[in-house]
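hey so i finally got around to running the thing on that chain from the lab meeting. sorry it took forever, my laptop kept dying and i had to restart like 3 times. anyway pasting the input first so we r on the same page abt which one it is
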Amino acid sequence: MTTQQQSEAMPLRVGVVTVSDRASAREYEDRSGPAIQAYFSEVLREPWVAVTKLVPDEIEIIEAALRELCDIEGCALVVTTGGTGPAPRDITPEATENVCNKMLPGFGEQMRRVSLQYVPTAILSRQTAGIRGKSLLVNLPGQPKSIRECLDAVMPAIPYALELLGWKYPATESDQWVAFRPKSK
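ok and heres what got predicted. didnt touch it at all, straight out
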């Protein structure tokens, strides 16, 4: 069985990493990770599996979680939430860059562009995206409302990006956007 056939036979694996000192210490409930899972449950029309991690704002721990989700768990898509601001402990983009082979800065640019419609401090956000092997990694902010806005902004590109990485093109449905796929010549 080829890699493409294997990826088509298995449910899409989506890694969801919440990066938060306080949530990982159980000082408060993680609402961001579940918000991401709820979003994908709404927009993905085919079976998928969430593989979740809740980690503190420690670069080595974030990097290890990202590597595990990509290299061991076989996640096609890994989405992080939290740690994207300018505060000293906000280091998720650095951890993402450290584990990726290629960076995709357009994802962060698009998320900031959309977020600026809602809040002027969106320019402080440092979301990014990149590729590790066959996995697409996307950094999101930590607030559930912002997560939805940012995912709506970049989701049109995610199915095609996954297909380019060798995964089955995931079918989606949304009233707010249409997943893009270039026309064949």
